Amino acid sequence: MITSFDELISHVKECGKKTLAVAVAQDDAVIEAVHAAHEQGIADAILVGDEEKIRAIAASLQIDPDEFRIINEPDMIQASLTAVKLAHDGVADMYMKGVIDTKNFLKSILNKEVGLRTGKPLSHVALFEVEGVKQLLFLTDVAFMTYPTLEDKVNIINNTVEVAHACGIACPKVAPVAAVEVVNPKMPATVDAAELTKMNEEGKITGCIVDGPLSMDLAIDPEAAQHKGATGRKIVGDADVLLFPDIHAGNLVYKTLVHTAKVENGCIITGTKVPVILTSRSDTFRTKVNSIALAAVVAEALKNE
Amino acid sequence: MITSFDELISHVKECGKKTLAVAVAQDDAVIEAVHAAHEQGIADAILVGDEEKIRAIAASLQIDPDEFRIINEPDMIQASLTAVKLAHDGVADMYMKGVIDTKNFLKSILNKEVGLRTGKPLSHVALFEVEGVKQLLFLTDVAFMTYPTLEDKVNIINNTVEVAHACGIACPKVAPVAAVEVVNPKMPATVDAAELTKMNEEGKITGCIVDGPLSMDLAIDPEAAQHKGATGRKIVGDADVLLFPDIHAGNLVYKTLVHTAKVENGCIITGTKVPVILTSRSDTFRTKVNSIALAAVVAEALKNE
Question: What single-letter DSSP state applies at residue B185?
Answer without folding.
Answer: T
